[in-house]
Amino acid sequence: MLSEQSLQLIDMVARVGSFTAAANKLHKVPSAVSYAVKQVEDELGSTLFERHHRSVSLTPAGEYFVKQARVILTNMESMKDDTKRVANGWQPTLSIALDNIVRADKISVLIADFYRHFTNVELIIRIEVFNGVWESIANGRSDIAIGATTAIPVGGDYHFRDMGEIEWAFLISKRHPLAEIDRPLTDDELRQYPSICLEDTSREIPKRMTWLLENQRRLVVPDWIRAINCFREGLGIGYMPMHFAEPFIRSGALLSKELERPKAPSPCCLAWNGANMSPAMAWVLDYLGDSEKLHNDWFL
């Protein structure tokens, strides 16, 4: 019967090219090595080694067998090591959900530092929008959420760290019909134009909108890049996080307007599922830092 020991023995014979040399390496007598090889060959119904006077060489079948055996042996060692690490709290992957309101450019630095620190954990990055962030935590798709807004789900071991508030800018194209109005805009003036909204990525939790008036049409886009294009073309109006909008306002590409009923700042947080705590998660939570660092890194 094939076993780890028999695969190791075949591998050793293939490496040294001799039953006698393999026996010396394995602290066995040559006859025991020869007998063990013959048992494997009989079980396979194939000759693995050509026997010469003082050496052996692999047959084509033997070359294939040894190649596969080495893969199996490597995987078996990895399985043993991973099992020990799992017993000590290790997880093979860590999934981080980013709300689309945070600065995604910061994630590249986090990824680079994470992979330098962990050689045996895969990092999975997901981009979610609004309630899709909480849903990914609640259903186990993600372990950590950066930039989660509004309410924390109930019924789980959820923890959070304040990230401060997101300030919003109400934007229109510089050529928009509302551009010449120099006072806070009313709902009735706004309602006739489509509201540019990001698509909430939640599937089960009720979806949220960026901003929408009663009886106002939506223009739903997948991300802020597409939203900026729509704003610039005058296809709609709406809110965008100030840290994304500010460069376009400063350059004059977009106009920021005051509303009679402005959108309130949105509290944000770093959230995680404590039930999935692992060394990798603990490292990331420490790496991300306190509330002030989180706000400066991801919103400024």
Describe this structure in words.
With 300 residues, the protein is an alpha/beta fold. Helix content is 42%, strand content 21%. The chain has three domains: 4-87, Winged helix-like DNA-binding domain superfamily/Winged helix DNA-binding domain (Arc Repressor Mutant, subunit A, Orthogonal Bundle); 93-165 and 267-299, Periplasmic binding protein-like II (D-Maltodextrin-Binding Protein, domain 2, 3-Layer(aba) Sandwich); 168-264, D-Maltodextrin-Binding Protein, domain 2 (3-Layer(aba) Sandwich), CATH 3.40.190.290. It has helices spanning 4-16, 19-26, 30-44, 60-87, 107-117, 131-138, 187-191, 224-232, 242-251, 279-288, 291-299, and strands at 49-51, 56-58, 93-99, 122-128, 144-149, 158-166, 168-173, 195-198, 218-221, 238-241, 254-256, 266-273. Strands 4-3-5-12-6 form a five-stranded mixed beta sheet. It comes from Shewanella woodyi (strain ATCC 51908 / MS32). GO terms for molecular function: DNA-binding transcription factor activity; transcription cis-regulatory region binding. It holds the Pfam family HTH_1.
What structural class do you assign from the helix and strand content? alpha/beta
Q: Can you give the helix content as a percent range?
A: 40-55%
Encode the helix/strand succession as letters: HHHEEHEHEHEEEHEEHEHEEHH
How can the largest sheet be summarized? 5 strands, mixed
Pfam family, one: HTH_1
Keywords: DNA-binding, Transcription, Transcription regulation
Protein name: Transcriptional regulator, LysR family
Family: Belongs to the LysR transcriptional regulatory family.
